[in-house]
Amino acid sequence: MTGSRADGTPQRPTLEQVAALAGVGRGTASRVINGSPSVSPQTRDAVMKAVAELGYVPNQAARSLVTRRTGAIALVISEPEERLFSEPFFAGVVRGISKVMDEHDRQLVLVLVHGAAERADEPAAYLSPQHVDGALLLSQHEGDDLPQRLRDRGLTLVHGGRPPGDEEASWVDVDNVGGARGAVAHLLERGRTTVATIAGPPDMQAGRDRLQGYREALGAVGMPFNPDLVSVGDFTELGGWRAMQSLLEQRDDLDAVFVASDPMALGALRALRESGRTVPGDVAVVGFDDSPMAAVSDPPLTTVNQPVERLGREMAEMLLGSLAEGGATEPRSVVLPTSLVLRGSS
């Protein structure tokens, strides 16, 4: 059915052959293959049956000219490679995104943008409608002008996490405030009286929101907020270790600490061991993520579960939904629930 070229190699099935086998015109076959809704179910079935029988594969370059779509979606992560490949949070989000991309026959392009502006400009230059249909942005920091630059180029964007100070953005986030508030409330209910926190970076909305949840939990029981009980980390294990050491130097009477990420909580556990303190005997510890490492830490870490794979799925579905509508300009947002997972550290 496919025929052969003069040199004997098989000839790739054409759109015309698909149309002839399905008993429709070439334009109708093209509309079916490009996902147009303006065809009947019977016609769509006939064309897709012909596609399967012939083994027809659309010419992506020609298809892009017609649809003005590349078939590619960029995932832009504003963190160094060490964090991307060492922290389970990113792997979980990427898994969720990848599943949706596979379901919709889309290509996922990973772009790392981090560091000085001159280094960030090179990968950012790739992000245009000529290369990708839209972009998913993860781990954005305050003051980053990349989202606005991409919008100015006509790209549809969805953020993972509420971007700080960006009212035009569409985003999917978890309930950072509620999750942190519940974690600190748990420590207070266990009878802890001097509860410290290792907060996330203040230039990231997750860092701000989890600190807000800490403050709200204290306020709910009439406890004053004390800056001496706050140390700021960077969401890494080393950052948590350093922040815990700083807290112990400031307040050696603390008996609990809420840590705004699991990697930082692991660093805090190490610092507490090195100082001779027992967990949870002397100091109770609660993290945030419910990463795989939390269940096997010593002791196992009480932590806030955030559904990272679902976060990735929701991001991807929101972006593809906007693209299907022609690139929706009205900002959209989704907040996913969190839950506290009790283990031995508290």
UniProtKB/TrEMBL annotation:
This is LacI family transcriptional regulator. It holds the Pfam family LacI. Signal peptide: none annotated. It comes from the Bacteria. GO terms for molecular function: DNA-binding transcription factor activity; transcription cis-regulatory region binding. Transmembrane segments: none annotated. PANTHER family: HTH-TYPE TRANSCRIPTIONAL REGULATOR GALS, LACI-RELATED TRANSCRIPTIONAL REPRESSOR. Keywords: DNA-binding, Transcription, Transcription regulation. Residues 13-67 form the HTH lacI-type domain. Gene3D superfamilies: 3.40.50.2300, lambda repressor-like DNA-binding domains. CDD domains: HTH_LacI (cd01392), PBP1_LacI_sugar_binding-like (cd06267). The keyword Ligase does not apply. The keyword DNA-binding applies.
